[in-house]
Amino acid sequence: VEYDVLPSGYGYLKVTSFADNDVLSIQVWERAIEYFNENEVPGVIIDMRVNGGGSGWLADQMAAYFFEEEVVTGNTARYSKDTGEFYMDPGDEARMIPPRPALQYHGPVAVLVGPACASACEFFSYAMTINERAIVVGQYPSDGAGGSVEQFLMPEGIYTQITIGRAVDAEGNIHLEGKGVVPTVKVPVTAETLQKQANGEDVILEAAEKALSEPQGAGVEPSGPPTMASAAEASKALSTSDQLEAKAREQYAPADFAQPGTLVYTVQLNQPDET
Description:
The protein is an alpha/beta fold. The protein is built from 7 helices and 11 strands. A 6-stranded mixed β-sheet has the order 1-2-3-7-8-11, sandwiched between helices. α2 (56-63) packs parallel to α3 (120-127).
């Protein structure tokens, strides 16, 4: 688990495996979430593109840091030779159990995926799509190999690993096998993007930053026309609330206002604000 803050101001988390020590992984994860909250980071990008999987339980619990309530993420259907059908044990339900509020992150999130994201990586990425919690960004879906596996000892000391459980969502539907987690923001594979990648540019990360910077209400039809406050209400609001400029990412010098033109202010909040 690695974390940083990008030049754009967004938090960046990279998880390359869910097979490392659970305690150490969670400790770094919590440190990152605390840092993002303390510094009011306006959005987080989680890079899962080279995560080969590991513990499905750990994947679900790390995703839970972006939720406020406990959520059932799915179950495992196992084949019964006696009945010739698959069955699910209610006790095998997978759940996200959020940590205490101080460790929850409520801002916008983008998850980066690709074909190298497999197994538990896909459980995490899928969990982040529940209730449309995060956008998924990539050129291709994840591997499509999410399932319970087990290793078997063969002759000559050889081990083989095969799937022994069918991964399903909370409604019992196969949700990962063969199709993976599909990007909601698909980055095109064109001569232009390939050239940028050859030059060392991360077009997928750039697409995630761009998507997070767009207003969350973009394209939403308003329920009605705006209303104007009275003079007294406006005066009270202006005297008791911070100005939007104070919350903006951009900072301008007095000289910037001397010439005609447009100055852009970008205000992103990860908590409700009455400003």
